[in-house]
Amino acid sequence: MNDRTPAPRHPALPNLHARLNRLASTAALLSLILLPSNLHSQQPLPTGQPIAPAPVDPAIAAAIQQVSADHIHATIEKLVSFNNRSTLSSMDTDLAPNTGVSAAADWIESEFKRYSAACNNCLEVKRDDFIEPAGTAPNARITKPTKITNVYAILRGTDPAQAARMVLVTGHYDSRNTLNANTHDPAPGANDDASGVAVSLESARVLSALKLPSTIVFVAVAGEEQGLNGSAHLAKLAKSENWQLEAVLNNDIVGGDTTPGNDTAPNIADKTAVRVFSEGVPANATPDQIRAIQNLGAEGDSPSRELARTVADVSSTYFQPTSQRLSANTPAGRPHSMAMHMVPAFHPVLIFRRDRFLRGGDHTSFNQQGFAAVRFTEWAENFNHQHQDVRVENGIQYGDLLQFVDFHYVANVTRLNSATLATLASAPGVPQNVHILTSGLDNNSELTWDPPAGAPANATYEVVWRPSDQPTWTMFASAGAAHSLKLAVSKDNVVLAVRSVDPAGHRSTAVLPTPERGPRPAPKAVTQ
Q1: For residue 495, what are the β-bridge partners?
Q2: Distance of CA 378 to the CA centre of its chain
Q3: For residue 209, which of 27, 38, 321, 340 sits 20 to 30 Å off, Cα-Cα?
Q4: How far apart are CA 183 and CA 310, in angstroms?
């Protein structure tokens, strides 16, 4: 046999090769079809990324640049000129013209109307007048029926679907000196609380130029020094009229007290910081709700506490550190140093309690009605300048005088308030029915929620979280337009919440989820 002669082929081989080729082609086609789905099902769950400041809104930035320390100075000086703004003076008939609390109320109303005229009547200016009955307690501060007036202006939202949502800023325009009943001797109340009223008025002036989706309310209340009477009435009014009030910013003693010689701890003023007080357990929580809060470890996550965190978030967007050349005031011809002094950004310091010791404020009235509310107060108070007759005693100046107010500090407090108000009025509302699924034991976190009422179609959502020992949100993961998200993050180790975001980056206040068991997962099949 010739060695070069090929061996005979088995008659079945050609058919076998054809079948194998067809199988290979089919397998390749199936892999192309199934591969994307297979990869998707195996994609890891998100683990989040660090939170960065939200982008600057040019319109909000331009508005807060219009805040004027000179205008704030004029406002506080005018309020001081009413001599004594004691709430009780509303019933006096022997006051000099243009003095007393009623004259102050009329002037505040006229200011709101002046701002409204400048924006084509964009503000609805209102008075909330009522008679506070005489108190019955032995130490009652109101001993006869007394007229109290709250004055406020409403900047209505421009989006019909969101205009019912409201945010509110307030300060109290009443003042007092040493004796509650003294309605005639000077009680200038420059810091406590003409400064807070100036924040509300100046915020109205600069924000009334904006067109915002939801509504802002600018308020000046009275009766604070007698027991939060004015704010209590307004908060109950808001509750009875079903105001969709999502945030209340109360400014009380925000004058940045400037007392010569206050250079020893703890009296050193920090002009870059304002305290923001927020309650932990909500004031109106029922016993069952308190038990649920304790079971969840949510004592630090009330709606007011989340509002305080929003203030901090807004601050990081609109306030940046600055620098000053140390030789800026060196006379011409003298050597100049090139050294720079870095000035920290103006910022809120979150104080996790409702208020200071032995004191209270108007935000508590709103807390008691179930509204999220916080208090802004200067870093270091000088109690010689609060609730004191104007006098010099042992070389110490007493009294709440204009000379101790830092108008540039009040301007920064106003900018922070205004930026927060405008951001929340621009953001979609807070997500609703936020739940964390706890149907089984695992180390993931799965959250679900409903969109806020009237939310724009382009709203998106973020799950945010922080280690349980941290004060503010540190991480987030975007859910896009979806209403649920599962994370490779253990719900047992962090605090989670959900917030809504619009395309421009305005973020709502975050909402803490409540547990929802839902259906239990089916048991896994046992394999032999």
Answers
A1: 466
A2: 17
A3: 321
A4: 40
Whole-angstrom Cα distance, residue 385 to residue 382?
6
Contact 373, 307 (CB under 8 A): yes
pTM of the predicted structure, to 2 decimals: 0.88
Convert 430-445 to b/e letters by CB count within 10 Å (16 or more is b): bbeebbbbbeeeeeeb
Nearest CA-CA partner of 192 in 375, 358, 389, 377: 377
Question: Residue 412's CB: how many other CB atoms inside 10 A?
Answer: 23
Q: Which pLDDT belongs to residue 11?
A: 44
Q: Please provide residue 472's backbone torsions phi and psi, each rounded to the nearest 5 degrees.
A: -130, 165
User: How many angstroms separate the CA atoms of 225 and 183, rounded?
Assistant: 12
> For strand 514-516 and strand 432-437, is the pairing parallel, antiparallel, or unpaired?
parallel
Q: Distance between CA atoms of 324 and 344, rounded to whole angstroms?
A: 11
- 346, HSE (Cβ side, Cα atoms, 13 Å): 19
Beta strands 460-467 and 494-501, pairing class: antiparallel
Are 308 and 276 in contact by the 8 Å Cβ rule? The answer is yes
Angle, in degrees to the nearest 10, between helices 58-65 and 303-318: 80
The C-alpha atoms of residue 389 and residue 184 are separated, in whole angstroms, by: 11
For residue 429, the one-letter residue type is: G
State pLDDT tens for residues 417-474: 999 999 999 999 999 999 999 988 999 999 999 999 999 999 999 999 999 999 999 9
Place of tokens 């307690």: 137
Three-class secondary structure of residue 396 per DSSP: strand
Classify residue 241 by its DSSP letter.
T
Contact of 179 with 124, CB cutoff 8 Å: no
Which runs of E-coded beta strand occur in 265-386?
273-277, 322-325, 340-343, 347-351, 373-378
Segment 31-53 shows an average pLDDT of 70
Going by C-alpha positions, the residue among 424, 350, 389 that lies closest to residue 162 is 424
Q: How many CA atoms lie within 13 A of 406 on its CB side?
A: 19
Each residue's pLDDT tens digit, 241-255: 999 999 999 999 999
User: Whats the size of the chain, residue-wise?
Assistant: 528
Going from the C-alpha of 244 to that of each of 165, 310, 360, 498, the distances in angstroms are 5, 18, 24, 19
The DSSP symbol for 173 reads: -
Backbone angles phi, psi at 481, to 5 degrees: -90, 0
CA–CA separation, 497 and 499 (whole Å): 7
